Amino acid sequence: MNKSLEQLEDALGHQFNNRDLLQLALVHSSATEHSLQSNERLEFLGDRVLGLVISEHLYQRFDRENEGQLARRYAGLTSRDALAHVAGTLKLDAYVSTSAQDKETSARGRASLLADALESVLGALFLDGGLDVAGKFIRAHWEALIDADIQPPKDSKTALQEWSQARELGLPVYNVIEQSGPAHQPQFKIEVVISGEETVTGTGSSRRSGERDAAEQFLNKKKSEQK
Description:
By secondary structure, the chain is mainly α.
């Protein structure tokens, strides 16, 4: 294990018994041709670990709040932006292995990549040290976000739907206009169509992320037209 990973262990507050888990947690799918050699499975697990720990913590701390209030807090604390913020405090960007193309990705895409990587690290912490170790890390690094009472982000598709309906233009329609790349790393080009408006396209590694990007591009276009 090299020094950089030892430094990451120090930041995580846990010395791994199985250091291969931490190494795997840092391998993005773009850096390998086989998904089982990437951090995707650990990401799946870490997402559930984070959800459980945050849910329990909110339940215990805010004992006078109803389900809706707790759900609002939960959505913000488990969002991509919250995960990317914590990943930034760990300087996780310096440890993640990605393809050369992904190293040049946008700030928004980089935030998603780091959020996914942190979920993978949470999965690795859980497998190596159990829920006590993973929970201790989560509670320590999310406490400031809980105190800040961050609001859940509004998904770009939701925002565009509200924009469209407010103008009585109906619901946005999303169409796949191109799919490229290998099976383990597909790229989708998506167009969003709104009655009476110019078609706008977006891209993503899945249909859902492509739709979000198309919605965001549409909203950004409208904002620039208003300036």
